[in-house]
Structures are given as structure tokens and as C-alpha cells.
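Section 5.1 Outputs to date
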Amino acid sequence: MGEKAVETIRQVPKRVAGVLAHPTSFPSVYGIGDLGSGAYRFLDFLAEAGQKIWQVLPIGPTGFGDSPYQAFSSFAGQPLLISPERLVEKRLLVEEDFREMPKWDAKKVDYGPLIEFKTHLLRRAYESFQVLPDTKMKEELQEFEKEHAFWLEDYALFMAGKDAHEGRSWLEWEDDLRDPDEEIKAKWAEKLSESIKYYKFIQFLFFEQWGALKRYANERGIQIVGDIPIFVAIDSADVWANKGLFQLDSKGYPTVVAGVPPDYFSATGQLWGNPLYDWKAMKQKEYRWWISRIKMQLKLVDYLRIDHFRGFETYWAVPYGEQTAIHGEWKKGPCEEFFFAVQKELGEDIPIFAEDLGIITPEVEKLRDQFGLPGMKILQFAFDNTSENNFLPHYYHSNCICYTGTHDNDTTIGWYQKASENSKNKCRIYMNSASGKEEEVCWDFIRTALGSTAAYAIIPMQDLLCKGSESRMNTPSMPGGNWAYRFEEWEMSHELAGRLRGMTQLYGR
């Protein structure tokens, strides 16, 4: 393409601060954080604390392993986030529906029984909707289905297909539904019509509740930073309905899969297993699938963090069947051509944050800076050793986001407890921390983030609450036990809000 991007397109905003907290972590009596009163209480807490940003992880429907980065769809919402109390208000659920509700751990999500219980509630809500004399809701559902048909039709058929095959991957379905044409889709849609209607209705509920919560946030001056993984799950409506956009063999299996080579997190790299895009095919279709994905997410959030941004410049391709990510190779991505296409649709000021961690080359940095996309700075990385590195705040330029840590890091206290004495000493000297006490380490890091030149300073909720490793959100390459962290309502105290607000104001955010 012949366009030429200006050196920095995005005008760096005034200094702002925010908190990273996934909705699954919110207080709720229903076993998992949701879009009910706990979410609104959290937003009130952010407003009281003078915060302008709420960052979340991906909010799609999760599959195996419960990872928000492995969803059944890039467009659909997570049914587990739907608030039962809001469904009671709409007369879709009654007290009797909760009679056999398990006793939940307020600090941890137990996904097995939670999914079974929440699915039961959603099925009951759908049954109630069918007999409810609420013509307005039925009209709103029809409008929703019409507006979102471009992804909803395939998603609902895909999920109904999974149910009809006892949850098995679409790669194990019979030939006609595994690779259907429009005529076959129509045949299966008729056969699975009731299940399809259910999945459309559940998405309607999610989008209605999320939309109300976003309006509440924006009215209080809080903007939402969303998150999407660059790659999608093989067992997803995205791949099933768009096979020509991925590097697959004739049976639908990937020929190469995504990951990263050995790095900070793993000596054998990370083998994610996602199918890789056929970027030539994407280009031929003017990147429409990707642009639709971005536009859809920007209806739900104000900014969008794209995980593994470097994959647009070069990506690590591992032959399908490998046990680790060691034996891969770097392949060229779509580079600036992709972002020119996005600009053409969204305008020059693209509301995207670039997750630029890991092995980052000058070419990746050039691509990021060419389109003025803020990159990420992690304070924990600055003190992993005593050497100089660009995660130290005195090397920051303003168009970046400073975090104490991310969902993939240990909590700051957990990190500090495991750090070498040299690293701890470097922290104490750099942050002018006289005591070096563990309970104050989090606030040393928070103060350093807020005081940095980064335009955005975002603190994970666990660090704000000074939690240890037991509250870590995710350990990369660990197959189970992740994504379960929850906090309780009493922890969002006025004292904590006041302390954070004072420090935020002190540093002009």
C-alpha cells in the first residue's frame, strides 16, 4: 500500500491511572464474579479512588482450561459473567432456582461445579423467557439477532453442534457438519433450532448487561481497556466458520501452531497450540475478519490491548505435533499493511495498546511507534537483576503503560519474596524504601508506577490489596489452577480508596 504513516499518530493523553481486575474476580454470592452488584461496587471504588481506567482480560466464552485467551469465539461474550441477580430482576429466575446452590469459596472460582450450576441457571432463564409475556424483551432480542447476525449465526450453530456431539471438538464431528456449505448449515440449523435459539438468547443477556455496566463506567469518567489474544483457539467458531483464513490441512488440522521460543517465563518456550493465520488469504479479503473483530470489541470497550502484538511483525511457527515450542521458526507477519487497513476503517488514531513483551526486535518497536501505539512497561522486569534495562522508569517515553505486574506475573509481594538479595537491594535503593518490609513493597511499586513518566499507570488488583503468590491470576505453561482469583467486597475499603486517590493526585494523574 502506498500510504505513509506519520511518526506518532496518537496524541499522548494526559496522565491517568487505573486498575486491572477481571470480572471473574469480583465479589458475588454466585461462585464467580459477574456483571451484577459486585461489578458496580468495583466501579464506585475506582471512582472514589480517582482512577480513570479499568482494564480487563478477554471476555469471551472460555473452553478447556478456563483460559480467557482460549475462547470459543472472538465475538461472543462469556456466559459465566451474566449476573443471576439481574435475571431475577427481569423475572427470568426465581428464588426456587437457587435452592440447591453450592456453598462457594469467596476467594477462588471452582470452575467445575460453577459451570454446571451457572448453566442450569441460564437454561432456566431461557425457559422462563419463552413463556414470559414481555414483548419488549422479545423485540429487543430480535433487534440484537439482526445486528449481530454476521457472527452470531455461526457461533450459535457451532455451540449447538458442540452440544449435539457431547462437547467434542468440531474436528471430531461428522464430515458434513465439520466442513459444511450453506445448504448443510441450513439443514443442521433446522435440526438444532431450539439449542441455537438458546445460545442467541444467552448472548443477548450478556451484551445487555455488559452495555449497562460500560455506560455506568463511562458516566463516572472511567474508560475500559479490553483485551484480545492475537490468535484464536482451534476449537472455536472462528476457525470452524473461516477455515480458509488459517493454515490448516485438508481435514482441518493445523499444519503449524502458535507459541513463543524460550523466554523469561519458560526454558522450553510456550506452546500455545493455536492455529496460525494464512495472512495471504487475509490480505485477499482486505483483512475484513480482523477488522470486524476489532470493531466488535470496541463497541464493548474504549481501548483494546492486543496480546502478543509482535506477531503482526513476525510470529513463531511450530510444526503441529511438537511437544514444546523449541523447534519453531520466525515467519513474517502482515506488518504495517495490516494497520493501514485498520486505519482506513477506524481512522488514524487507533485505540489499541500493544502488548510488546518478550523477545522484541527493533522492527517490532518500529511498527508499534509508526502507528503511535502505547507499549507496556513492567516494573518487576526492571528489578529481576541488577543490570540496566528499558523497564526502569528513567528510560520511559510518555506513550506507554506502566504496570507493577500483569496477569502472567506473580503478585509483587510474591515476586519480592522469591527475588535475589541483589534485586531486593536494587528495589530499595531505586524506590528510596527505608524499611524494605514486604507489606510496603506493593506501595513502593505503586508509587513508582504512578510517579513514572508513562501516560498510563495500571495496577493489578492483587497488588493494590498487597496479596501474595496464592492470589496469582495465571502461571504460564501450568495447565491447571489458573484464572481463579477472587476478592471480597470488604477489601474495597474507603481507606484503601483514599490512599490510592491521594497518591494518584500527588503524581498528577
